[in-house]
Amino acid sequence: MSAVYCGSKRSYFEDIPSPPSSKRFRCYSPSESPIWSSPPSSPLDQLRSAFPHLELTVLVKALEEHGNDLCAATRSLHSEEKKAEELANKESHAVAGGTFSADSDNHQASGDDWVALLIREVTQSTGIDDAKVRAAKVLQSLEQTLSSRAREEAGKIFQEEKVAVQQQVEDLMKDNTVLKRAVAIQHERHKAFEDANQQLELLKQLIPQYQEKIRNLEMNNYALNLRLQQAEQGNSC
Q1: Range of 73's domain?
Q2: Ranges 23-32, 55-64, 74-83, 176-185: which has the least confidence
Q3: 3-state class (DSSP) for residue 30
Q4: Residue 165 included in any domain
Q5: Which residues contact 13 (CB under 8 A, 6 or more apart)?
Q6: Fewer CB within 10 A of the terminal residue: the chain, N end or C end?
Q7: Contact 18, 38 (CB under 8 A)
Q8: What pLDDT is stored for residue 237 in this prediction?
Q9: 8 Å CB contact between 77 and 47
């Protein structure tokens, strides 16, 4: 911020040159160190040098309100700029959190709300440079809000996909359990079938032996019948 010169009260439209050797006390902003130099030609010129980003009408009004007192006008303009900056920061932080102000009923900011905020900040600016600063803060807050919303949406989608994957894993585990039981039952049935086949093969091997025994029994039975008939004939004679 350029330093301004504190001179005696006089009309800011006057142009009274100061002697080259004279030096006057200058009013500085807190962040600046004092530098001695030749004074500007008028209080208005000094204010224009100190506040190049402000409109001329604003500077004239400040001088008029403080009776052409350069130091008082300078302090007033510094105070107004500080208040405007604090207000812009407060509104930007409020927008970044998803709300505009306490009376906005904490509603979620929409596209129209952001446009309205940008227009309000630009119209309340004191000059082109101030408008650029305010617009940049609004756009920065918008970017932060969009990034935050994007992270929230990504987190929600990730959580939903995680739940869906967990459900699929649980379903697969259930299906796997059912499949294992089906395999175990099939294995038992296959084992029982193999046992039955072994018993059948064993019975097939025993069939010839039983057939031989049956033939022997039939022959013995036939021989006994012949003897019985012979014995009956001998008794009848």
Answers
A1: 1-80
A2: 23-32
A3: coil
A4: no
A5: 42, 44
A6: C
A7: yes
A8: 61
A9: yes
Rounded to 5 degrees, φ, ψ at 5 are -100, 135
The reported pLDDT for the residue numbered 91 is 58
Question: Are 108 and 98 spatial neighbours (Cβ–Cβ below 8 Å)?
Answer: yes
Q: How many domains does the chain have?
A: 1
Q: pLDDT-based confidence at 90, cuts 50/70/90?
A: low
End-to-end CA distance of the chain: 165
Inside any domain, residue 104: no
Give me the residues paired with residue 233 across strands: none
Higher per-residue confidence, 237 vs 49? 49
Q: Which helix H or strand E contains 26, and what residues bound it?
A: strand 26-27
How many beta carbons lie within 10 A of that of residue 205, not counting itself?
9
Is residue 61 assigned to a domain?
yes
Residue 167: pLDDT above 60? yes
Pick the closest to residue 10 from 43, 41, 39 (CA basis): 43
On whether residue 56 sits in a domain, the answer given is: yes
Query: Nearest CA to 224 among 213, 234, 232?
Result: 232
The alpha-helical segments, DSSP class H, found in 51-127 are 56-65, 70-96, 111-123
Produce one character per residue of 65-74: b if its CB has 16 or more CB atoms within 10 Å, e if not.
ebebbbbbbb
CA distance 59 to 17: 21
Continuous H helices in the chain: 43-50, 56-65, 70-96, 111-123, 128-236
